[in-house]
Amino acid sequence: MIEDTPSHSLPATMLSAEAMLAESAGDAAFATTLAKGLIVLEAFDAAAPLLGNMQISVRTGIPRPTVARLTHTLAELGYLRYDPTLSKYGLGTRALRIVRPLLADMPFRQLARPLMQDLAVSVRGTVSIGLLDGPSIVYVETARSGDVGPHSPDIGLPIPVVRTAMGRAAAALLPDDEAALLATRLAATDATTWESYAELYGSGLAQCAERGFCTCFGEYMPSIHAVAAPLFRAKSLQRTFAINCGIPEFRLQPGQLEAEIGPRLRALAASIRALVGEAEPVIPQRANAAAR
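RESULT FIELD:
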């Protein structure tokens, strides 16, 4: 069967194989084939749960013959499943085994969730925790109340750092050297997006230092306004977490995000830190990232 023409471009939060491999050029210990296999697994998302080899090739930048060998191997190992009727692959059940230990290593999520749910119900929106992952921040816990509009966060969903309040709040926690490296990577990953949002990104970091939270008015999804607060930078493996609250624009009064919901989210972040024994973070003042 001839494969369908790819209907989805490379996800905005994902680097092409070419770019990722270029970052590791000269590293003799870097296992290129393994890296390509993992990049293939990351090509799948909720919008494209089934992909043919050509679609994967377009999404990742890996040549189709190489993709065919990788998908065959991953399917034999159970990390992909093959649909012979469609001549396409989807993620296999075995992939879930990788996720479980990571989530189990974040037990604070269960402690935080009842507090998150209370706020979500109160403001009729969503409250989520995200983990910084390079140019993306990935949802690791979420609570929602009723109809929350077109964006329904779920565990494992990556969203871009530069365009989101939660991404900016997490970046605000980074030491200066890591913050500078992240800004450089954001610019290299998507120069057009960086040029459009770098000033707002820098403003978000400054807001976190000044008042403990930052706002985002439809910069990621036009109909959703959000506020986010730095949560903590875990001592184990230096994982960086932030918490956000997203609300459909039509439910908000002018100024409510900054005057009411932002302070409540900041207080929620402090309560979660107290539950898990994390100190209040010191957010450094930085020059606007757009100036770098």
